[in-house]
# Entry
Amino acid sequence: MTPEEFRRHGHAVVDWVADYLDHVERYPVSSKVRPGDVRAQLPARPPSSPEPFEIVLADLDRIVVPALTHWQSPNFFAYFPANVSPPSILGELVSAGLGVNGMLWATSPACTELETHVLDWMVDLLGLPDRFSSASSGGGVIQDSASSATLCAILAARERASGGTTNRTGTTGRLVAYATAQAHSSVEKGLRIAGIGSDNLRLVDVDDSYAMDPAALARALECDVADGRVPFLVVATTGTTSSMALDPIPAIGAIARSHGLWLHVDAAMAGVAAIDPALRWLNVGLELADSYCTNPHKWLGVNFDCDTFFVADREALTGALSILPEYLRTAETGQAIDYRDWQVPLGRRFRALKLWFTLRCTGVADLQAMIRRHLALTEELTAWAREDGRFELLAPARLNLVVLALRAGDDATRELLARANATGRALFTHTVLGGRYGIRICIGGRTTERRHVQAAWSLLSELAG
Ligand code: PLP
# Structure
């Protein structure tokens, strides 16, 4: 592709993406293809000579788009959202165009310094404790996902608890970690990867709202200590995946302090809502946390992948992850941040650009307004569901998540979900809470308005019979 062709096709691609986003509401939210359908339309081998770009673009419409779940549809209420926004898309484009690898400060100083700076902005914007800012002993880094952030927290906690011995001997000894069964599966996955193992994750009891019971945490700790185990980590969740439950961070933090545990707070979805000052209560107790993560790629219009991960003691993190071979040594080693030491991979993309573009071109006020709109719509939906005697809420509706079930029972709820999703007019997902099957409705689409939520509710209530 010549530079001139690149320019021309690049404009066509931006037009194509703009048209897609303009029209995304028209598509059935989920596709009807069967496993193997996409591959059946693709040639067995790549072409030996270049194909016209127009044909490649046409294949996007012919093969790819019909086989998509349209996450950017305003009728997408499934899982948690993965919002994009035009400024963020442009930030991604620039990142691709620059093609830098920011593994070290020296390999692209702007990549590192913009990231540190924008994450300090996030500390300020979300009202996070100062100890997470780079001006303190801590700081922030962009990870690809909350799962990676949690893994890094586990590795740092493991290293601190063992006085650095796990890095030398590789044995994790008798370390045990704590979370609830409502915590994200990435906690258990991280413990497996770190060599701690699933059996050394204690699932602490929850209360009626599915939040961690601090008294149960204290009891579990005492039992383990009496058994000669070494408690090293508690992962608390602000906004669980199934029901947006809020673990009580102040009480958990106090227990963690008294036992010398690392406290990691996973606020993957809910945390960014604190951009609205009225929701700063979400951060209560965070001054007791050793690490914290939240995902602008879920609810802030920043393209996946963008998890913001903060630590109170950056040396605890780099102490766990830093290995310095000669070929990575630079004149600035030890004087500037080398983000390779803050993550699992060596190489890293210039992700800060999309966050920087989004914050600057959308503006904080609009982002706050979006969060408020979602919360108001969720309240309305909750009221409609409460008024309809056929439905019940399986958990307190929190922030932008409602979990509904039919009083008629699990089979009826399951069938309602399947029939609603089959229409393509909206997409919901499910969970199980307290042994009951429920439909999760998360209102988080950047372009989701009242009419979409009304239509979603009409769909469910019409099909509920
Ligand atoms: N933590 C919570 C509470 C989540 O809800 C999710 C995903 O929905 C994750 C972690 C994992 O997120 P990621 O895809 O960024 O790894």
